[in-house]
Amino acid sequence: MIHAKPAPQRKRDPMNLNLTAFIDVVFLLLVFFIVTSGFVAGEGILPATLPGGPREPQPAVPLTIEVSSTGETGYRLELANHPTRPSSFGDLQHMLIAVQDNPAKGRRGLYAPIDPLIVAPTAKVRWQHVVNAYNAAVRAGYANVGFEYPSE
Known about the structure:
Blueprint: H1 20-36, E1 63-70, E2 74-79, H2 89-98, E3 101-102, E4 107-108, E5 116-121, H3 127-139, E6 144-147
Parallel strand pairs: 1-5, 5-6
Antiparallel strand pairs: 1-2, 3-4
Helix pairs in contact: 2-3
């Protein structure tokens, strides 16, 4: 019986992973994402300045805009202590101008442009409508616009 000699085992080098290619790909992806990303301010952030000096006296009852939801995308506006309801944000702006006291612009209302104005949304109202009410107040010339926590 002839015995065959086993083939000599080749000595294998330990496996090494070449990381150079992986590092190149990671840096290319990093550069790609930095270049293609857009940095914009969050939608929920509204610019505001806080008073810094002595506080002026505030009226006893602030002017309040109530924004509520009607249906899926509808809204309802109410201007507190006002006999009529605005049907749109343009009407709201005109009503806010009508109640403003600004002698420089010939307005003789109850509220000065620096008096507080509060936007009071209900819990299920779309924030688009709240922002539109805020914009109407700013366009009407009010400088001290705040928000109330949503009510039920």
